[in-house]
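Budget justification note: compute hours in this period were largely spent on complex prediction jobs such as the one shown. Inputs:
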Amino acid sequence: MFLKLLFTDLPELFYTINLTPGILLKVIKFGPLTLSLTSGIFLIFISLIFFLIFYLKKLDEKKCQTILLGLIIMAWLPLYINFTYNNLYDLSENFKTLKFSDSSKRVLRLCNMDSRQNAGGVYCHLFSFFTFIKNNLPAGNEVQLLTSPGLDAYFNYYLYPNYKIVKKADYVLFYYPGGYIYKNNILYKKQDGKDLIIGEYKMLFIKNNAEFILKK
Amino acid sequence: MVVLKLTLFFLSIFIPGWLAEKLWLKSRESFLCKLALSWGIGTILITLELFLWFFILRFKFNFFIFYLILIAQITFLFYLIIKNKLNFKLNPLKLSLPKINLGQAIVFILILIQIAFLLLNTLMRPPITYDNLAMWQYKPKVLFYENQINFDEQKYAYLGGGGHINYPWQTPLLSYWLYANLGEFNDLAGNLINLVYYLAILIIIYYFLRNYLSSLISLIFVWLFSTLPLPFYHAYNGYADLILSYYLLLAFTFLFYWLETREKKQLLASGVFFGCALFVKNDALIFAIAGLTVILIKSLIIDKKITTALKAGGFYSLAIILPLWPWLFFKAKYHLSFSNVGPGLGYHAGVWTNIYQALFLNNSFNIWWFAVIVSLLANVIKIKKQNSLLLGWLFLIFCFLGLAALYLLTEEYRFAIDNTALSRNLLALIPVSVVLTAVSFASKAGQPAE
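Corresponding output:
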């Protein structure tokens, strides 16, 4: 089991930037203790025993510290091996994209993270929707965005400078917004179990029933 | 052509940085260490000048006029160096590895392998993470296309746009400077900035540790840092946290030197680098206060001199303001706060779980903070005997306590609960923890082990 853990690929996810990459998706436990706690307590325990032996026997301090450092490096090895294994994985992934254009690399990276985290493709489809917008809506227009909060930054970033996203605009970009419904030319917002009417909008361009552009 | 433009970008940072380092710090370190310092000083100089240009003078950007000013600045720095009779003779390159032994060679190669992995990720993985797009790359993108800062409160790009207009500008302006040199918005190239900061951190850790430890042990600690997954990931993902950790490391090393030597120059450098850190992220305020606390403890409790405490504390505070005054002035004028949330105090006990998880990740092999604890416990007697080491550890502990207080007691707690900020805050402390852990293994701080 330990070897299997060492050689597990841990690809990047959306939260990798906030937490230590190399975190296993599944909680690994040894009895009541988790993996890192087991390793950490083991390291502290062994180190303290060594330290006590050397201190009580009044052995050379330098020797003691060399052994402690050795222990830390030994305890470090599982992380290093696992991390190197992951880096080799990334290396092969990188080599595959060596000749890709920057935009293809971007799409691939986002789609990989999307599928690994089971996000349902909402991130992966972003770039095709951006292309759809650019192909249909003249640049320079102000647009209103209806999407889930985790996606707004992508719209702001990638649509700039061609489109300016504002709070209210004649054009509405509809992209998987939780809590909004469009039917019979009316845009509704779900609130407290009721459908509140936002306004009357005309379907301007449609990519699919969750990705389209409306006009007031 | 892109290579030439990139070269121009790096030269525009390294040359003034190098000259300023020569005039100000006059470090006797090796070429590589000077280069790592020059990068940090040069990027601050450029971004401060851009800040003055855009935010204080409210000018529209003109590439050629800005370069003329830069050339004038470089000429002036050259003049000062010649006037002060500082020669340009470099120390013999310590990099010329003639007496490297097998152990050193192996560790060095392992570090190079890490850097090679990183380089490929840097070149192959365009920015895609949320905050990078929402904040750190969005602002330079808007600035690149608008060529000026928008001061109209009604406009979407007011004060640069992006999620938080109260965030400092060092990181977005540095990216902007890169794109201005390239003549195009290329955020994949923007990855290079963090890569250079990362390399600079590795170099500074090594040369700082070489003062106290053998070359092999110093390299081992550099290798340990290079194999830490979170800093490694940040090295090609454009967030400001790694840049913050670079300035915090510099600020700490000079504070440590001051604790050992009591030279005013070291305290000035420490304060200035804390100021630089505050121009990178608001979180640095906690670390700067921790630095001030250590200075006051040293003067009041150890030296028992109130006048020294006042002088050192005041001098340090002024040094912090030195690189920061344009940003502080701007913050005051536009009522921009340090915090992202409203006022309000309350105890949020649930945050302890997140602090615990951020330090001792349950599903990981990462035992870094355990190793830090082992080093602290194993060397506690030595640490108690050596003031500089003791105060160094106190600095790290105060930084932790400051962060813990921030998340336990203020409305910032929500960023700990959702795991979006706490680990990144701790990332800023990792290089400092590496040098402290390592120096605690030295036979005596201030004396090389070999």
